Amino acid sequence: MSFFKKLKYKITGQTDTVTNKFKDGLAKTRHSMAARVNNLVKRYRKVDEDFFEELEEILISADVGVNTVLELVEKLKDEARTRNIKETEQLKDVIIEVLSNMLTEDEKDAAIAIQNDGLTVILVVGVNGVGKTTTIGKMAYKFKEEGKSVLLAAGDTFRAGAIEQLEVWGERAGVEVVKHNEGSDPAAVIYDAIMAAKSRGVDILICDTAGRLQNKVNLMKELEKVKRVISREVPGAPHEVLLVLDATTGQNAMTQAKIFGEATDVSGIVLTKLDGTAKGGIVLAIRHELDLPVKLVGLGEGIHDLQPFDSDTFVYGLFSEMFQSENGEDHAEENN
Amino acid sequence: MAFENLADRLQETFKKIRGKGKVSEADVKQMTREVRLALLEADVNFKVVKDFINRIKERAVGQEVLKSLTPGQQVIKVVQEELTELMGGEQSKLRMSAKPPTVVMLVGLQGAGKTTTTGKLANYIRKQQNKKPLLAACDVYRPAAIKQLQTLGGQLDMPVFSMGDDASPVDIAKQAVAKAKEDHNDIVFIDTAGRLHVDDALMEELENIKEATQPDEIILVVDAMTGQDAVNVAESFNDRLGLTGVIMTKLDGDTRGGAALSVKAVTGTPIKFAGMGEKLDALEPFHPERMASRILGMGDVLTLIEKAQATVDEEKAKEMEKKMRTMSFTFDDFLEQLSQVRSMGPLDELLGMMPGANKIKGMKNLKIDEKQISHIEAIIRSMTPAEKTDPDIINASRKKRIANGSGTSIQEVNRLLKQFKDMKKMMKQMMGMTKGKKKKNPFNLPFM
Ligand SMILES: Nc1nc2c(ncn2[C@@H]2O[C@H](COP(=O)(O)OP(=O)(O)OP(=O)(O)O)[C@@H](O)[C@H]2O)c(=O)[nH]1
Ligand SMILES: Nc1nc2c(ncn2[C@@H]2O[C@H](COP(=O)(O)OP(=O)(O)OP(=O)(O)O)[C@@H](O)[C@H]2O)c(=O)[nH]1
Ligand SMILES: [Mg+2]
Ligand SMILES: [Mg+2]
What we know:
A: Four Helix Bundle (Hemerythrin (Met), subunit A), Rossmann fold, elongated, B: Rossmann fold, 434 Repressor (Amino-terminal Domain), 3 domains, P-loop_NTPase (chain B), RNA-binding (chain B), nucleotide-binding (chain B), Signal recognition particle protein (chain B), EC 3.6.5.4 (chain B)
């Protein structure tokens, strides 16, 4: 059985609606990416330099990143040589296999680390406007649905309307928000929230933070301070430091992951706005270059639009159309 | 960033060519490949890159370049000139209506910076042209979006028109314009909700706002960190609304900002302003030439120079420049530069603008820790005059003495010596890079 078929088998074995939603969200990605690879394979019967160059382009257009793409294509060339593959049709499966391995190598637990007993503290960080506050609202709702008690900390005391925004999400999810006035010290808000969470015996505390660009040294220090306060007050916390990345972002996402990673020991990534046409290929690069799992994906602005990340589904979603012709099914051609 | 900057890579390529004395087709291919990769690395859309490469190919492999003593730098010059050209002239003006109020509509993806930019732009126009703006809160979807705009209005002491979040954005926009007429506000800024360019219903809503208010400006707000998708976004918004301008936000970050080129290439509309921070005065006219340098990884040198010139006196700067050129830059000079730089503003901001700064290990450390700078100062102060002018004489026993004298460690002394060496190397490179230019050498930086 081909690698892809195995994957498909694995996926279709799941009857989870979650999986479908995830796939729907990625439909645009899948369509254009798969159609283009397919198209490429059709136009080039033989595996040659031009073929690889165009493959490079497809991957780059998905924001996979130049370095990763070059490495990937090198790997493919090697594979083609050692397996003596001359026809592009045969190479299709290898492409999927190599990409999939890249995404799943050293796979870490993608689940959010919720403590069995005692308080779980989740710190949410990232650059401006990526979707931190929205993701927190969605997460609060999700945990609440799972029967957990949740508290939110309005740690963004800087941006206009940030506190009110989190309060609206708190109302929507039916959870309380601990806040101070705009302009106050974020570490103090977080501290109060921890105290409140402890005294109320809350299961999960999720801390919002102001968006900050990773090259702002002072703001990164402020974030380190917030994290220190959490560690000091709750041993072993924060149990998760989630870095929110916007799928629309290009190569800078890598720098974000590196620098936020260094400053706050990021434990996982939330990839938002995958409901747009941005391909989210940066996930490959991040997975490959940094040892950071993607834990959640944002697929819209609604409270339900948050899903766990599943790399099998992701790869399947990216390429399923490419292989439909294998089963005699037709696939829509895309001309671009 | 694992990528070397384009200057280095081209230098490498040409070194090989030089040895052979003849340029082959493969060499040309290699060279354009380097340019291509640098642009892709900077997030310029791959299709835009393709067109661009075709554009420069002829010039880049022409006589002008190959006969030059420094072909690598010549290519960069050509690339930068073409990039600047493509980016268009400076156009930091808003189209004003002959019949007030002027209507300015801001549109874009979620989180791009529309609401913040609405505040900034209103502030800018009031300052520059004495206008009396009204802000219209037409985002009825995002939680607390209205509150956000109202807070900004409060900070600016500017009126905000809102009808709550039950009204339709089209009605709000229409009423806002009427209200502005009534209150003699001569310019209205319409803040719209973030939306995906593929969201047909919401895109139609924008068309309806346009229809109802006949804006003089429809400005697409684009996050400078946007990747390859920038072209799809810009194309869609432009097709449906007919954009009149673009504003790039978050350029205070360390992204190369290739999206600027993509957006300009597909829409043809001018990029008018650059968002340089979260505060309401952090809006600057967009400088195409600087953007071109930045995309090529040469840093925002001009901004840095402007800052420097405002702080440092001309004479000293000239002297420094000469020292840099003749490579007679010493630790004494370094020390002086350090103190001048510190008076210019937060170090991290300055270093962010410096070409290649984040690629040099020592620089990155400097960037992270202000305390370390006091250590550096202490180390240099513990050197003898001879050591400061000629660091090569600093042997193991001298290192030990310096470390003791400055209360630091030998490792720290070693690190500084290494940094200094790297820095000189970089200076040399940068001095070389600009040699071809006729205009005033931009590198009269007060430090480095
Ligand atoms: N389409 C889409 N929009 C999203 C998603 N997640 C967030 N958004 C939108 O993105 C915008 C910014 O979201 P926020 O949650 O305010 O982002 P943030 O990171 O908290 O922003 P700052 O606090 O200002 O740094 C809002 O308009 C959200 O509705 C997503 O998964 N898909
Ligand atoms: N560093 C920096 N941050 C910026 C800049 N412009 C906007 N921001 C920040 O980016 C985030 C999003 O800005 P908003 O103005 O809320 O963006 P928006 O496009 O109105 O967002 P939606 O209405 O949710 O679509 C906020 O945290 C802003 O403070 C800029 O030029 N530099
Ligand atoms: Mg927020
Ligand atoms: Mg807004």
